[in-house]
Every structure is written in structure tokens, then in C-alpha cells.
Structure to design on (840 residues):
């Protein structure tokens, strides 16, 4: 009788993986708000002073919005892929854990960008975080496909739609990041615009092809 | 054969949406407590000093209570709507994500109000946060109704009850916020009173009509 | 046809309530660790210095352990009651939300006690937090019983066991808190000992009667 | 009729235990990122300065990665064991709560090691945390086996695989920790290497025997 290896029986529970994922996304989303720091009370003496101090939070509010959209988009993406799975395996679980690690990095790269919003390094690290999310969600899909983890009745063009979405989105993000040669504000504006299209999902061409 | 678009297959899992929502609400509720700051040990030399320092937390405790009630009310509201759904779609998921974004803002607007409890801007921003929650929960309900996402057997007057609740509550909150022309304390007192009525749910008129 | 009131259809989903509860407990448990502050690197120059600084964390470690046990005990208690429910209602949901509010206060009262471990006020506030948890878990049970929310096949003596547990535990906690007239250390030692008995659950008399 | 004791009916719900576990793991994983502190803006004047400051985060990034792997490995392990359970009991629940306590300690021992990466005490405390996780996951398995909580159809060699995994892993971690007599960097390098083998799970000997 062959020996049973731990690896062949580990990490197969899809429901637990969903619960861990939803937990990590929920916490990462909520931690983002910690970047919105309440102004120090000592420096503020009247309504005008408070209004001024709140105005200074605008860049943080922008990066907060961008990161919330980033997390929302990848949460919807992971959920949409995951739903078509018939079963899990150890490598699928670990690719998802790696993906969740990239998710937990988002609050850090967001804080960094909020604090150094005019610095190219901060913007490129933010983009690297999005790229890592994209590569890992792609790897998860690849694993699910090539190891027969998906339900038998998932139509072929579903898979094509999932892959197309990841590739096009990453091309747009890379283009957005490249715009930092002009200014970080161009990059951020472009990325937020792309994300809003993904979130709102307009039904007219060319957007419906994204 | 028509191409399948990502948007037509994305974000349909209602259970995942519930798990994300419960996670975000749970974290936002728990983060509120971070506003209750333990007094600095250096400044305190005896029991009387500690009692005095704890007394200074009273405004924070009040805003903590108010925000916990806010989150509780909207959690019960979202759950009550959501329960009658037969299926989800992408736009429904994204409206919920936007709603959760407004939820994660509550710890920020609460901290702001606790730190600047006599400032009208802080109070109006807090109210704007409640208004945003109300608009989004209304939008979620509207989407569910107009796109046929609700179960067929939900009686018409259930929907009426859900809409009436959101509209009346927002009118009361707006009235409460307007009381800040007299004093923020009037506003906060009125809003907490309204929330306690919603939480306790007395069975006598006129409260049962709310 | 009578009007349907929101209150009669709200907050009935038991599964959502479980998910929110587990989330709040999980976060409150994890936030406790933030009281264990890593010593400041500037003040430490060798292994001996680090060992000394870590030794100074002992009171925080003790209150951390005590609060983890507190939360564990109430989580097991709430779960054990909740499991016997056939259905929920609005008041049941709100009593649970109030209970969760008391749960989120635990990290605060723990931090306070860790910072002021020799102060009677800090100890009594900690005890007041436990008392509030006990009163609310009792109120939840009372609601479930008197409004017929429990499954029909729950034996009568189950309910007796649940009530007896809450009452005896609160009497022991109150006695423990009263020991602070001698010293807070007596109180903390007694409460931790009681909690360990509840956690370990020895099968010999008199412990099995607790 | 014999009295029903609370202990005989408490803490039996396996689903609640999973939800609490997934919550605690998700939060502990996400809290790790708080060690990656955004450099202070005042000290940084150009891209080069930011790059330099980010380079100083390398040790924190390493301990972050190591702890994420630690938590991932124990999450997969607990899930794999738990999945084979037919029912729970009070002691099983409490052993899991103790295990979750050790999980919540990981962000602390990680922060400590990141701040004092060259200190042997910090490394040994980190290892003690891993050892505690190992002892408790072993105790959970032991309880499940000896009290007949596992499903009847779990093959004998599954259990052997689960035990072998825990024992071998702990031996490797202990060896890694012992390497600190040479240098903490040897220890950390060895432990991360072991963890990557567990995460990647190569299918060739000798790795498949681990």
C-alpha cells in the first residue's frame, strides 16, 4: 500500500479558502481608512482651520479611493474565477495564499503613495503591487484550468473572458504607470479612470470589450 | 456564437458578498474602539487622576455609541434587503462594494467628530457619511427591484416597508444634522435618540410607523 | 390588508448574525495583541537589555491572557446558546449587537488595566465590562426563551444549564473583583483561575458543577 | 434524571470554529503588514532618499514573508485536520482557541524580530511561537483521534501523514532555530527555505516525504 503524503490531502477545502479570502479583503479594505488621519487638535482653532486641514487630506482620499477600487476589482475577479471550481488542491490553495499576501501589501503601498504622491518610486511600487495581483490571479486561473479543477460544464469562452479581462486590465495599468514619465497625477488619473470603468461596467462599446 | 463578456458572468455570488459585508462591518465596528484612547500613564499619579482622565473620554464614548448604532442599523438594513434576493449581478455587487466603502469611512468620520465635537464641519461630515450610506442602501434596493433580482414571492408591501424605512430615517437624520445651527450637542442628542428608537423598536405608535 | 412594518421583517437571518459575531470576536481577540508593544530599539543595546525590556511586558501578557480567556468563554457561551435557536427576530439581533458592542470594549478595558494594573478603577471597569457581557448574554437567552425562538426539541434542563452557568460565573467574577479591596493582584489571580477552570473544564467535583 | 452540565453541551459547532479560525488567521496575516512602516516624509527630500529609506525595510520585509508563510502553513494544516472531523466537543474547541491565541501572538513575535533582527532572544521567542503552534496543532489532532471525533472513513495513514508532517516540520524549525549560535541570518534563511519547500510542495524526493 503506498504511503499517503500530507501534500496529497492538504488544503482542498474551497469553502475555507473563500472565508479566508473574504476576511483578508475585508480587513485590507478597512485598514485603508487608517491613512485618513484626523488632523491634530492642537493646531486647529476654528472651523476655517479644520476645513483647511481636511483639504490637505485630498491626496490620501484619492489613493484611498484608488485602492478600494483595486481591492474591489480583484475581489470580484477572484470570486468570479473561484465560483467555477469543482475542487481545490494544495497548489491552488497556496497560489491563493500568495495572492492574499499581495492583497495585504495594498494598504502599505497605498500609504506609501499617499505620503509620497509626487515620487516616481512610490507610484511604480504601487503599480508593482497591482502587477503582482494580476500575475497571481492569472496563475490561479492557470492552475485551475491545467489541473482540471474547474467544473466540467464551464463553457470554454468563460475561460477566455476571464483571461482576456486580466491581460487587458494589466496592459492598461502598465500604460497608466508609464504615464509617470510625465507626472504621477497623469498615472493616477488614468488608473482611477480605468478602474471606474471596470467598477461601473458601461454597456457600450468599446467599454464592454474590456 | 456571441462572445461571453466578463461583465456578464462576474460578481454573482451572493454568499461571498454577505461574507465580505459581515467582515467589513465587524472590522469597522471593532476599529471604533481605537478612539477610546487609554490615558497616558505619565500624567496620572492616583485614582482621582485616572478617574478625571477617564471622564475626559465621555465625548469619545458618545460618538463611539452613536457610530456603533449607525453601523448596527445599516447592517440590519442591508441584511434585511439582501435576504430577499434570488440572485445577484455585477452592478449589485459593485453597489454593495461602494456601500462597504461608506461603511469603512465611518471610523474616520467618528474619530473626526470625537476630536472636534464642537465643530460644525465635523458634524456635517458625519451626517454626510450617514447620508451616503442611506443613498447607497437605497440604490442597492432600487437595483434589486428594477432588475428583477428579488425572489418572486416577496410581497409588494415588504418593498414598501424597506423604502419607507430608508426615507423616513434619512429625513430624521437630516433634521438632526440641521439642529447644529443651535448646537452640535442638540444634533448628536437627536440622532442618538432616533437611533435608539430604531435599535429598541418600541411597539407603540408613533414609533412603530418609523 | 394590514401594513407590513420594517421591524417585523428585519434582522431575522441567524447565519448573518453568526458571521458578524465570529468576525467581531476574531478581531477583538487579535487586537488584544497590540497591547504587547515591542520595546523601543533606541533604548536597548544588548541581549540583557532586551530581556529586561521584555520582562516589563509581564503585566500586559497577563491581562492579554485574561482577556483572551474572557473572549473565548463568551464566544463559546454565545455559540452554545445560539445553536439551539430555530429562528431569530429583530430584538434578538439587536441584543446580540449590544453584546458585540461589549465585546469590542474588551480591548479597551484590557489596555486600560494593563497600563494601570495597580489602580482599582481600572480593575473595576474591567469587571464592569465582564458584567455587561454577562447581563447581555443573559438577556439574549431570556429573549430566545420567552419569545419562543428556541428549537422545540431543546430539553428543559439545557436551558437550566445555560442559565446556571451565567449566574455562577458572574458571582465568581464579582467575588474576584471584590478582592481588589486587598489587592488588584488577588482579583486578577482569582479571575484568571476561574477562567482557566472554565476553559479546561475539569471533570471532577466541584468543578463540573460550575 | 441526571443533571445536564453546561460543559457537555458547549462548543460543539464545527462551523463556528472554522469561521472564528479563518477570521483570526485573516486578521493576523493582515496585521503583519503594519510592520512595514512608511518612511517619515520629513527626512526624505528626493527619489534617492526614498529608495534608500525603502531599502532599510528589507529586514521587515523578510520577517513579514516568513510570518506570512508560517501562518499560511498552519492555516492549511489546521484546515486539513479539521476537515476530517465528524463532530466537535468542548475540549476540542478550547484547544483550538488556545491555538488561535498562539496565532495572534505571531504579529507580536514578528514585530519583535523585525526590530531586533540580530538579537538571539528575539529569534528564540519567534521560534518558541512556532513551537507553541506546533504543540497545539498536535494536541488538537490528538484530541480528535483519542476521543473519536474524526469521521469513521478517514484512512489510518491519513492520520499518520498528519502526525509525520507536524513532527518533521518542528524538528526542522528547531534545527533552524539552533543555527542562531552561528548567526540569526542562518536561522532565518534556513526557516524560510523550509517554509518555501512546504508552500511550494515540490514533487521530487526527498521533499515529498516531508
Amino acid at each position: 500500500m503506498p504511503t499517503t503524503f500530507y501534500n496529497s490531502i492538504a488544503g482542498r477545502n474551497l469553502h475555507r479558502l473563500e472565508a479566508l479570502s473574504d476576511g483578508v479583503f475585508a480587513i485590507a479594505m478597512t485598514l485603508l481608512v487608517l491613512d485618513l488621519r484626523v488632523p491634530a487638535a492642537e493646531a486647529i482653532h476654528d472651523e476655517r482651520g479644520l476645513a483647511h486641514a481636511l483639504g490637505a487630506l485630498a491626496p490620501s482620499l484619492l489613493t484611498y479611493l484608488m485602492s478600494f477600487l483595486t481591492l474591489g476589482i480583484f475581489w470580484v475577479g477572484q470570486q468570479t474565477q473561484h465560483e467555477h471550481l469543482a475542487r481545490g488542491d494544495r497548489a491552488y490553495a497556496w497560489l491563493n495564499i500568495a495572492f492574499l499576501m499581495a492583497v495585504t501589501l495594498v494598504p502599505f503601498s497605498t500609504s506609501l503613495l499617499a505620503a509620497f504622491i509626487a515620487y516616481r518610486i512610490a507610484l511604480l511600487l504601487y503599480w508593482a503591487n497591482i502587477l503582482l495581483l494580476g500575475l497571481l490571479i492569472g496563475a490561479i486561473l492557470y492552475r485551475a484550468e491545467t489541473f482540471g479543477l474547474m467544473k466540467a460544464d464551464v463553457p470554454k469562452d468563460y475561460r477566455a473572458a476571464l483571461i482576456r479581462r486580466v491581460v487587458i486590465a494589466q496592459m492598461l495599468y502598465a500604460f497608466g504607470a508609464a504615464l509617470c514619465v510625465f507626472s504621477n497625477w497623469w498615472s493616477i488619473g488614468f488608473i482611477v479612470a480605468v478602474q471606474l470603468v471596470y467598477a461601473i461596467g458601461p454597456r457600450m462599446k468599446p467599454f464592454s470589450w474590456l
